[in-house]
Write a structure and sequence with these properties.
Number of helices: 27
Shape: globular
Distance between the termini: 74 Å
Structural class: mainly alpha
Oligomer: single chain
Largest sheet: 6 strands, parallel
CATH class of the largest domain: Mainly Alpha
Number of domains: 2
Strand order of the largest sheet: 3-2-1-4-5-6
Strand content: under 5%
Length: about 575
């Protein structure tokens, strides 16, 4: 098969499987896995040799680590430090230690029974490393679709995922080091490996930031997108090659490249430019993972596959649940966090492949383990969709606490009528609340961040803890008695959920929606939005007004010009007489 035929075959399979996943509302990465399963040498055998493609898949891992490094920033890490270095650190470390301890325990038990257990602690460490990882790509996508990133369990999930991403870097150093131990002293070998990594990282971060910033500034002055992209690829792959030359890994060099660029002013441009390469190559990586599955081995060892799918999921979910409870999270929040993190992750495949390369994983184990990891990832969307039912079934107090919270909200808002329900209490929500207070208009603000809610209440504002995309929260906030609903955060899926509930239960209440731009304007209007306010248009109007005022245009004329532009844009203002003094700002 020629290179062109191979490429076309991969593209066709990927397109078909991704479209299927989109239609079934499943994460795209599962589509790539299915494509690999179908085309692999152990299924339809459309491709017999995947060695050449695996080399390309390595670049997918490189760019994945590059994006992780690019998104890494110390302020975010400091803000989430309790979750990252509390829940996240505990989950990864206890999983690694648990794998090694269980390995020794099984070995001791079998020895007492007269059997020999030949699984080394190095193998247990690799398996524990793979088990410790969860799928950032799948979980984050599902939480975004379900509008749960700011929820109590969503914040804990993100904290654990962030630490898992960071933990990959030392694990990429640790696995090759323990594989090369031989008869050497373990402490000496690990110390040398960590010193080598620390020295390289220190040199790059200390001297590399200034050099990276100066070089990118020089390249940007040439005003050539092609030249900028070429330099970006050169620096990423160059640092990856340098770390591999130093005995570390390609992925670690890419992570460092991302960290260096994240400290420059070109971070956002780089994120936009690298995204197509990252998604395409990461998809290729998942295809090669699917191709590695040997279905004959899987069917022959189906009991092991089922056990390896269920047991790690239950263990990881239970461990996260206990750790979250120890940190003081309610039982319902803790269980949801555990369910969201129970599956295997893309970095688990990376670490497992690294262990296989260094001959730490027996060849006969690879297919059953890969199959169990893939099955756990396939089950993740369904597990998360059923998370509420599972929590209500096993944690009766969660349902009771939610009911009490909603009842309390309903009691506090029962006397309020003709008010505005403000969905989201970020900067836009806060500004809207301040204007409503100035006009003595009643309001109820909803936000799912308990810290924001507490701070707002201490400041004397009426903000309730609740998810505006849930009917119970809207009804408890007095939806049927409200004068209007304002969605103050630019999230179209969330806004569509709010619009659906309002249209069904309070169609007389107008909904005003904020968006980034006018891309989803017609979709939101058809869903029932009374008005859509794009940030881009409002920002351009304010920019125009300030520009006209600074070049000497009379302020009254500037206001009339801007008001005229708004009238052509917004329906309600088109019905307002611009000469009416009450309609004009004073």
């Amino acid at each position: 098969m020629t290179s062109l035929e191979l490429t076309l075959l991969y593209l066709c399979a990927a397109v078909v499987c991704v479209v299927g996943c989109r239609l079934m509302h499943l994460p795209v990465m599962l589509g790539y896995l299915f494509a690999g399963l179908l085309m692999g040498p152990n299924a339809l055998a459309l491709i017999q040799d995947s060695v050449a493609v695996e080399h390309l898949a390595e670049f997918g891992v490189v760019f994945l680590m590059f994006v992780i490094g690019l998104e890494f920033n110390l302020p975010k890490l400091h803000q989430m430090r309790k979750l990252v270095f509390g829940l996240g650190l505990g989950q990864v470390v206890l999983t690694l230690l648990g794998a090694v301890v269980v390995n020794f325990g099984i070995g001791w038990l079998l020895h007492q029974m007269g059997f020999t257990w030949r699984v080394s602690w190095q193998t247990a460490l690799v398996l524990g490393s793979a088990l410790a990882m969860s799928s950032t790509a799948i979980v984050v996508k599902l939480m975004v679709d379900r509008v749960e990133l700011e929820s109590p369990h969503g914040q804990r999930v993100m904290g654990v995922l962030l630490f898992q991403d960071l933990a990959v870097v030392p694990l990429l150093v640790l696995i090759p080091a323990v594989a090369d131990l031989g008869d050497n002293n373990i402490a000496q070998v690990l110390t040398m490996a960590l010193l080598k990594a620390a020295l390289l990282v220190g040199v790059l971060l200390w001297g590399g930031q200034g050099a990276m910033r100066a070089w990118l500034r020089l390249v940007a002055k040439r005003k050539s997108d092609e030249l900028f992209m070429l330099n970006l690829l050169l620096m990423t792959l160059g640092l990856a090659w340098l770390t591999e030359l130093a005995g570390l890994s390609l992925a670690m060099g890419a992570f460092l490249a991302g960290m260096l660029i994240a400290e420059t002013n070109f971070k956002h441009k780089v994120e936009a430019d690298i995204r197509p390469f990252h998604d395409l190559l990461l998809g290729l990586f998942f295809i090669t993972i699917g191709m590695k599955l040997d279905w004959e081995v899987v069917f022959d060892s189906w009991a092991w596959v089922v056990s390896l799918s269920l047991v790690p999921v239950l263990i990881k979910a239970g461990l996260v649940f206990v750790l979250a409870r120890v940190q003081g999270a309610p039982a319902g929040v803790s269980l949801r966090t555990g369910l969201y993190l129970a599956q295997a992750g893309e970095f688990g495949f990376v670490l497992l492949s690294l262990g296989q390369v260094h001959q730490l994983i027996p060849a006969t184990w690879v297919s059953p383990i890969l199959a169990s990891m893939v099955l756990s990832m396939i089950a993740t969307p369904f597990l998360i969709m059923k998370a509420d039912a599972i929590v209500n079934r096993w944690v009766s107090s969660d349902w009771l606490m939610q009911s009490l919270a909603l009842t309390g909200m309903a009691q506090r808002t029962i006397q309020i009528e003709n008010h505005v329900i403000v969905c989201g209490y970020g900067r836009s929500g806060h500004n809207l609340v301040e204007l409503l207070k100035l006009e003595h208009i009643a309001y109820v603000a909803l936000d799912s961040d308990p810290d924001k809610v507490q701070a707002a209440r201490e400041a004397g504002n009426h903000v309730e803890f609740g998810d505006a995309t849930r009917l119970a929260s809207l009804m408890s906030a007095g939806l049927v008695r409200a004068a209007a609903v304002a969605v103050t955060y630019p999230d179209t899926p969330s806004a569509l959920k709010v619009l659906a509930w309002v249209k069904e239960h309070a169609p007389h209440v107008p909904v005003i929606v904020r968006t980034h731009d006018d891309k989803d304007l017609e979709q939101l209007r058809q869903a029932g939005a009374a008005e859509v306010v794009p940030e881009v248009i409002e920002g351009s109007l304010m920019l125009a007004s300030q520009t006209l005022a600074h070049i000497g245009i009379p302020l009254k004329r500037v206001i009339r010009l801007v008001q005229g532009q708004r009238m052509t844009r917004y329906a309600l203002m088109r019905n307002t007489d611009p000469t009416d003094d009450e309609a004009m700002p004073k």
